[in-house]
Amino acid sequence: xxxxxxxxxxxxQWRPPELIKRELPQRAATDEAAAHWVREIFQxxxxxWGHFDRGTVEVPDLVQRIARRTxxxxxxxxxxxxxxxHELQPIRESVALLAQLRAAGHSQVxxxxxxxxxxxxxxxxxxxxxxxxDGVFSARVKAIKxxxxxxxxxxxxxxxxxxxxxxFDDHLPxxxxxxxxxxxxxxxxxxxxxxxALRAHGLID
Length: 205
What we know:
5 strands, 11 helices, single chain, alpha/beta, Rossmann fold
């Protein structure tokens, strides 16, 4: 059994409202205002940001598109884009679980929707990203979760049948898509909540 990890919200913190409050304090003085700008900027990871995840839009074009669409200034949008790496901090308990499974000799890979600049940053900044035997970043394959193509591509790349993949992701549509592709998939809330699934597959005691 190969364990497949998502990144944002699983191994790295991802709190868009906090990001917006930090980068756009003049726009996001309340929780409601922050939630509004999360919806406007990220569009549920469809639209402009979805193209960024897919690797079909680069930062300058992304900034212009979002500014035109939302009424934010380009400088404000650029601030949010530049602030994402600061938000993507490792989740200590998740990394500890990753290390425990690695020490036990289990095969681990990743499947993450991640724009190219952030993928490059995470690889260059965090040593534990190098622990994985393989991985798929969406921007590098021009496909995104929860589309079926990325699950087929990942299974082929990982070199095992879908039924031998155990996937952890924090986004329910991705879990449903993985299961539809024949993977074992479990919604991730925190490292402790992942333990029953790992035990059920005989991966930890």
